[in-house]
Amino acid sequence: MESIEQTGRTVDEAVRAALEALGASRDDVEIEVLAQESRGILGILGYSEAKVRVTPKPGLAQRALGIVTEIVGLMGIDAQAEITGDEPDAVYIDINSSSDLGLLIGKRGQTLAALQLLSAMMANRGQPADARRRIVLDAEGYRARRERALNASARSAAQQAKRSGRSVTLESLSPRERRIVHVALTDDPDVSTRSEGEDPHRSVIVYPRETARPS
Known about the structure:
The protein is of the alpha+beta class. It is 36% helix and 26% strand.
C-alpha cells in the first residue's frame, strides 16, 4: 500500500485522519511528521496546519518476500522471487531464474530448507504466537520434483521389501520428506514404515507387515 499525507490542526488530529482513511491502527503504520502546527501571531496570522505522512508497514508475506529477495541477492544469484500463495497459516514463495538454481537448492534441498527456516524466523520476529505463519519456499518446481522422486523411492522400497521379506532402509531424510514416504505407503496392506536414527541422519525403514520389527 502507498503512503498517504494528511493535514490537521494538530499532529495527532492529522494522524487520526490518516489512520481512519487507511483503516489501520498505529501499530500497523509508520508515521513521519512533515510539519508541526503553527499557531501564528495571536493564533490567527501565519497559522498553518500539521502535516504527516503515514505509511502502512509491510505485511508478513511482503516482509518474507523482501527477506528472501535480499538473501538470494547476497548469495550472488540472479533470480526473482514472487508470492504464489498468501494463506492464513502459510506464505508460499517461488524463486525463478533463467540460470541454474542448483546452488540455491543445495544437496537434496538442504540450502533451500535453510533459507526457508531463516526467512521464516526473520519474517515472524516480533509477531504474537497466533499471528506467526509458515514460510514455504520453492525453486522452479523443485519441491514437486522431489516429492515425485520420494514417492517413487517409497514404492520401489516397498516392492523390494515384499520380494525379499526383509526391511529396506532409505537414505537420510528431512522430517517433511519422511512424512511424504510414510503417507505414500499408508494404504499399502503389505508393508509398514517407521523412522529410526537421529537427525540429520534419521531415515525411514520399510518392512513387510508380518515382520514384527525391521531386520
